[in-house]
Amino acid sequence: MGAVRAWVVSEPGPIDSRPLRVVERADPEPGPGEVRVRVRACGVCRTDLHLAEGDLPPHRSATVPGHEIVGTVDARGAEAARFDLGDRIGIAWLRATCGRCRWCRSGRENLCPAARFTGWDADGGYAEHAVVPEAYAYRLPPALDDVHAAPLLCAGIVGYRALRRAELPPGGRLGIYGFGASAHVAAQVAIAQGAAVHVLTRSAPARELALSLGAASAGPADAGPPEPLDAAVLFAPAGELVPVAMRALDQGGTLAVAGIHLTDVPRLDYARELFREKQLRSVTANTRADGDEFLQLAAALRIRPTVDPRPPRRGRPRARRPRRRPDHRRCGAGRLRGRAA
Ligand SMILES: [Zn+2]
Ligand SMILES: [Zn+2]
Question: The whole model's pTM is what?
Fold first, then answer.
């Protein structure tokens, strides 16, 4: 059994204190039904930073973070037959569910109370090798290259589920509040499908990016969109934007809140912000079906996340960050300890 290099969370703390440490470890062996990949690229999700900084309590010690993994299968455990050696696959946040609870049996495995997650309950992708139950891996369309596929595996999939939860009608008017990693992918999907997308964010560079991607308008949230919205997604972790977005909805419209952490929501004005069948919903991670559907769609629609590739370096994780600070922290089922990132 050989050794591999991996970056582990040694002592959770501020990023400046370098909570990740490079270690040499025994090469992980895939168990029954599992495959091992040689990691080609791994994205940095906000949740990885929360784990490194200790905002998300660790589930085990010295865990390797990283759950936007692209790799090639280089070993298969007993009974693993879904992939061939050399196949390129993706590993994402969700890595196990019970398959028996009422949520699993009704197509909502994202709500499974026994779900387990990559980089939290098991080692993730800031390493030379990573292991995953093959049933939870994704086939990656050839049109997606390694570096651009990686961020789609969490930021992309979760943004896509949020979009679906917002029930945007074909050719509809969509509002996007906050414009980080997840949002800029969801916006591209909606625009490619013919929606008029209005981006509401206080960040001027983010507004510029939104317009360059084809958004119909971009402005600060308090100014409101130039037309009523059929649907909206709140990506910013700012509860005070809930009434703002609810007011911007047309009657019958839906707001999906995409974060797992949100500051307190102020009191809603029933007449202006909820009556006439407006709906307010949350989004919790994703199912495998969401992931498969999104990855196919991303290839067909030529979705291109903005990336900033970095080579692996000693003492630093192999990492790529979105150019702007990633705003999504919604992949976890757990709650962050009270701090808006
Ligand atoms: Zn994530
Ligand atoms: Zn279950």
Answer: 0.89
